[in-house]
């Protein structure tokens, strides 16, 4: 069974920074993508950033230039990070880690971590 555990959320002032982490554990073959989504009240869950097995990345327009997704596959770890800079109140949401294992047609989700940007 695969588990994704997020950490790093919290309260930050506008213009501040946070770094989210997502650690994968359990038995898995290979993730094709690891992503960060977010969902705020009354809105659909939306893709924030993705990193592919090739190392290429993709960002939603609202976060381009402010957020950076990266990963660490060393020593058997599967960890993905989201560095968030120049945070705005509209970035307030629950952030979810997601991983896609295409070989087995499986999707995995973390439990979510709250990010609140407020003065």
Topology:
Layout: E1 3-7, E2 10-12, E3 18-25, E4 33-39, E5 46-52, E6 57-59, E7 67-72, E8 79-84, E9 93-101, E10 106-109, E11 113-117
Parallel strand pairs: 2-11
Antiparallel strand pairs: 1-3, 3-8, 4-5, 4-9, 5-6, 7-8, 9-10, 9-11
Intertermini distance? 40 Å
Characterize the biggest β-sheet: 7 strands, mixed
Q: If you average the pLDDT, what whole number results?
A: 94
* Secondary structure category: mainly beta
Number of strands: 11
Round the Cα radius of gyration to an integer and report it. 14 Å
Unreliable residue runs: none
Helical residue percent band: under 10%
Give a quick summary of the entry:
The protein has no helices and 11 strands. It is mainly β.
Task: Describe this structure as you would to a colleague.
There is one protein chain. With 119 residues, the chain is mainly beta. It contains no helices and eleven strands. Strands 2, 4, 5, 6, 9, 10 and 11 form a seven-stranded mixed sheet that branches. Strands 1-3-8-7 form a four-stranded antiparallel sheet, with no helix packed on it.
Top keywords for this entry?
119 residues; mainly beta; 7-stranded mixed β-sheet; 4-stranded antiparallel β-sheet
